[in-house]
Design brief:
Helix 6 crosses helix 7 (225-242) and helix 7 (225-242) runs antiparallel to helix 10. Strand 8 and strand 9 form a beta hairpin. The radius of gyration is 23 Å and the shape is globular. The longest helix has 33 residues, at 332-364. The protein is built from eleven helices and 19 strands. Strands 13-16-15-14 form a four-stranded antiparallel sheet, with no helix packed on it. By secondary structure, it is an alpha+beta fold.
């Protein structure tokens, strides 16, 4: 028997019809090629290439997709070996930033021989102009945003629930060919009597996109141009915060509300607690305050962001594995990153009611799927749902052969 719902969001336009091309999350296959600091990755790679063949196999943590004898092509834009890892030698490939989870930017060894499914189509369009919209895992009844944005390569795996998709803003490098339903930007420009760019649409989707109780994300488009303008402005603010400031100016809370280290964090912290009465993070004998409850309570897919961020830096690693090669004491830069994360989560939580208000205003007087069908924007042509052919340089395939795309 079908489920009956009165949620008006079910009538909103599906995200997949607005940004048609999407890519599945990366599947790493092993944890050690990712770390919060690049130095640890270089130490792990050096330990791997120094090891003998028998030891290498255990250190690799082989999977069905990747073994010591699996050859793989270079990832687009990267210069790595393509021979099987059994014969790998030389220095570690330069680590690249990776959004390892919600608000958790780490580092990745960009070697496809180490990654079960690296999604080369994402690397092919990745540059300084690219943005990614990342669908978060669907957990029925869980709180937190359904969408997050990233300017660096996102892994796309969610802390809980079924992972969603990764949607690049552009289908080609250099900000060329927006990943937008053909004709949509022209239609919206006419509806709102102003130029609507792909970046405008991205900003609107970021603040208005939500789930109607199902895994699908829907985006109400307002018929009112004033609602659209306010939403785009808010979306730009949210995007700026999620990118931790993209213009050199870092997010800050007003004086008196800024978090500070009140007592030094221990050299080897093991857990983090929250003192709700004192608005403080308690890390062993260390203490950070003020930390608003909104920052501590901020969740994605039902998982606390601050708790997970901390756990990924302190959870014990199995002795003898490459993952165990990491800082022996808590690095000072991590404290600075933690203070900034508290700030970002606090400011984003403050914007939540504005997002809800804009979504409700759009749902009260929306552009509908039928409107887009009459404008011949929908249905989306099938080629728009597939990656563009992108090859601006030769990509070396397995064993030194050049890839043919």
């Amino acid at each position: 028997m079908p489920v009956v719902t009165n949620d008006p969001l079910t009538e909103a336009i599906g995200l997949a019809d607005l940004m048609p091309w999407s890519v599945a999350p990366l599947r790493l296959g092993r944890g050690w090629p990712v770390a919060p600091d690049a130095a640890s990755l270089k130490a792990r790679w050096n330990a791997f290439v120094r090891a003998g063949q028998d030891e290498r196999e255990g250190l690799l943590e082989p999977s069905r997709a990747r073994t010591l004898h699996t050859a793989a092509a270079q990832l687009p834009g990267q210069r790595t070996g393509t021979e099987p890892l059994a014969h790998a030698e030389g220095p570690c490939p330069d680590p690249v930033p990776l959004l390892h989870g919600p608000f958790d930017e780490q580092w990745l060894i960009p070697d496809q021989r180490l990654l079960d499914a690296a999604r080369p189509e994402l690397w092919r369009v990745m540059d300084e102009r690219q943005l990614f919209l990342v669908e978060q895992g669907h957990v029925p009844g869980a709180g937190g945003p359904a969408l997050l944005a990233s300017a660096v390569l996102p892994e796309g795996r969610s802390p809980a629930g079924r992972p969603g998709r990764i949607r690049p803003l552009y289908r080609r490098p250099g900000g060329v060919e927006p990943n937008v339903a053909p004709g949509l930007l022209t239609h919206l420009s006419g509806a709102y009597d102003r130029e609507v760019t792909a970046a405008d649409l991205f900003a609107w989707i970021l603040v208005a996109g939500a789930r109607d109780g199902s895994p699908d994300i829907r985006v109400p488009l307002p018929d009112d141009a004033d609602v659209w303008v306010r939403g785009v402005e808010l979306g730009r603010r949210v995007l700026w915060l999620e990118r931790r400031g993209a213009d050199g100016d870092r997010p800050k809370l007003p004086g008196g509300r800024r978090p500070y280290v009140r007592a030094p964090l221990p050299s080897r912290p093991t857990e983090v607690l929250y003192d709700r009465e004192e608005e403080a993070l308690v890390v062993g004998d260390g203490r950070i305050s003020p930390v608003p409850a909104a920052a501590w309570d901020f969740q994605v897919s039902g998982v606390g962001v601050l708790e997970q961020w901390f756990a990924r830096r302190t959870a014990p690693a199995e002795p003898g594995t490459l993952a165990a090669l990491r800082p022996s004491t808590w690095p000072q830069p991590w404290t600075s990153q933690l203070l900034e994360l508290i700030t970002v989560l606090t400011l984003l939580a403050e914007l939540g009611p504005q997002q809800d208000e804009l979504r409700e205003a759009a749902l009260a007087d929306p552009l509908t799927t039928k409107d887009l069908e009459r404008a011949r924007v929908l249905p989306v042509p099938d080629p728009a749902r597939h990656p563009a052919t992108v090859l601006d340089h030769q990509e070396e395939g397995p064993g030194g052969q050049f890839a043919i795309l």
